[in-house]
Structure formats: C-alpha cells, structure tokens
Amino acid sequence: MLIRKQIHDEAKRLGFAACGVTHVHTVADEAMAHLDAWLADGCAAGMEYMHNYREIRRDPTLLLPGAKTIVCLAMGYTPREAVAGFAHYAYGRDYHEVVRLRAKALADTFATVHRVCVDTAPILERYWAQEAGVGWIGRNRQLIVPHAGSEFFLCEILFADEVDETDKAVKARCGSCHRCMDACPTGALGGDGRLDARRCNSYLTIEHRGEWTDHRPTAGCLYGCDECQRACPWQRFATATEEPDFQPGHELLAMKAEDWQSLTREQFGSLFRHSAVKRTKYEGLMRNIETQTR
Fold it and tell me: How many CB atoms lie within 10 A of CB 209?
C-alpha cells in the first residue's frame, strides 16, 4: 500500500513544487470528446503523433497493466534572467533528462511496479494533473497551479499498488478572465477552449518543419512563445526556480541579436547540446532567425 503523505514528502525533498495523487480510471468521455474534436478540426497541425494511441490515452492501464495509482508532479522552471526570443522552458537543461531522473528516484523509493512518463508517453498529463489536485487547465491550455502560475514541467508516475488516500481534484478558477486569449499574438486560442496549433507561435517555431505557408510566427519568436502565460493573472505568483539545471548558461546569456544571425552549426551544438532547443535542429532555428530579418 502506498502512503500519500510519504509520496508528497519525498516529492518535495526531490525539488517538485507540487504533487498530487489519485486513482487510475478511464478518462472522462467529455475530455475524450474534446480531444477527438480538436483532432478532427485539424488543430494538431502537423503533429500526426497526436492521432496515435487514442485508447492508451483513454486508459492508462494500457501503459502499465494493473496500474491503480497515478502520481502527478510539477517542477517549476521560471528563470531568474531572460533570454530574448526563447520560451522560458528552453533556457536550461532538457527537462526530459532532469525531471525523469527525479521522478525515477521518487518511484524507486517505493519499490513497486511503476512507469515514469515525462511528456513523451501517450497520456493526458494536464487532465490527470487536474484530477490529482495539482492545478487546473486554463483557457491558455496550460496547467495553472494555484498561487504559483503555469511555468511548470509535468510528470506522471503510474504505480501498480493502491494508495491509502487521494488528493481532491481542482476546479477551474479562470472565471470570466480572457487575458490569455486577448494576449495571444496570432489568435491561436479560441473561445471554445481550444488551441489551434496551426496559428501557435510555439508550434510554428518548434514543431513545424520546412517553410511556413498559411501562418508564420510573430516578430521576436525564435523558439516558442510565452505570451499567454505572461498575461495570466495567476502568473504574478510565480517565483524563480532555484534549480540550476533550468537557468540559462553564461554562453546563452551573452548572445546578442547580431550573434544569432551568424550562428554556426558548431555554436548551436555547444549552446543547446543538453537543451530542449535541439528539437528544432540547427536548420529550424536558422529558419526562425532568418525570417525575423526578412
């Protein structure tokens, strides 16, 4: 039997800012219908992988047979210093590496069958984080942690054991606020609570391959976009992370606008060897940089 308090205590010790525990169950029909409609309307743009593994997304026991408990974790990444043109989450070491190691350490503490999921597994992480009481899904489609904002990396651990008690699900607290939608520079956030990736700066500068056609990112976006998060009133509660792995290095902070224009492949490798920015590859980042000066 897992003990909820022990899980919370260990998560805090390992540097997680928030933790929630709940029972594994099939995802609610309403949430699945929202996903299906989003995909059917083409809002996933070129992210074809989102069309895969629907049944696994609906039923986490297909990820870990016999799973009974899910632990949802959040680790803050708000930086102390800013790097123009880059989303905050990409400043430091790739979160997949950092968060996975911490979560694995937590899971191993309880010596039971488990599976750690950090962004790459087909699991509805924000849905489960809301079910587990970590936060709620805001109109900007980010998970908002009460009195802490939305700049968090999320992670889930599926356990085969039962837990003694669970955390209470969080209800949405956006109220009538639409500041994130108003702040979106490309109109990617719709009134129906959907994010249209075809218009999103983050998708266009990170996931999209090749040249842009119907839509292109707004000026100043080299890798990702934080405008909808900056506009959120809950973000005023955010505090800078003390995690050194999520701070920008001196080499990155020293880059000036003219330096990006002459960025070499070798410099890209040095700057982003252990960064999430490597996802866009050198060619993708140079496309983004060059487009800003046309």
Answer: 10
Active site residues: 119
* Per-residue pLDDT, 294: 58
**pLDDT of amino acid 229:** 97
Q: How confident is the model at residue 111 (pLDDT cuts 50, 70, 90)?
A: confident
Structure tokens at 11: 């998560």
CA-to-CA distance for 253 and 82, rounded, in angstroms? 8
35 alpha carbon, distance to own chain's centre: 17
DSSP string, the chain: -B-HHHHHHHHHHTT-SEEEEEE--PPPHHHHHHHHHHHHTTTTTT-GGGGS-HHHHH-GGGTSTT--EEEEEEEE---SS--TTB-GGGSSS-HHHHHHHHHHHHHHHT-S-EEEE-SSSS--HHHHHHHTTS-EE-TTSSEEBTTTBS-EEEEEEEESS-BS--PPPPPP--TT--HHHHH-TT--B-TTS-B-GGG-HHIIIII--S--SS--PPTT-SB---HHHHH-GGGGG------GGGSPPHHHHT--HHHHHT--HHHHHHHHTTSGGGGGHHHHHHHHHHHHT-
pLDDT for residue 291: 82
Strands of 114-117's sheet, edge to edge?
Answer: 18-23, 69-76, 152-159, 114-117
b/e per residue, 56-86, with b = 16+ CB within 10 A?
A: ebbebeebbeebbbbbbbbbbbbbeeebebb
| d(C-alpha 215, C-alpha 224), whole Å | 15
Residue found under tokens 């999520």? 246
Record the tokens describing residue 121, joined without a space: 């597994």
Q: Report which of 228, 50, 209, 37 is spatially closest to residue 124, judged by C-alpha positions.
A: 50
Do strands 136-137 and 143-144 pair parallel, antiparallel, or not at all (unpaired)?
Answer: antiparallel
Residue 83 near residue 256, CB atoms below 8 Å? no
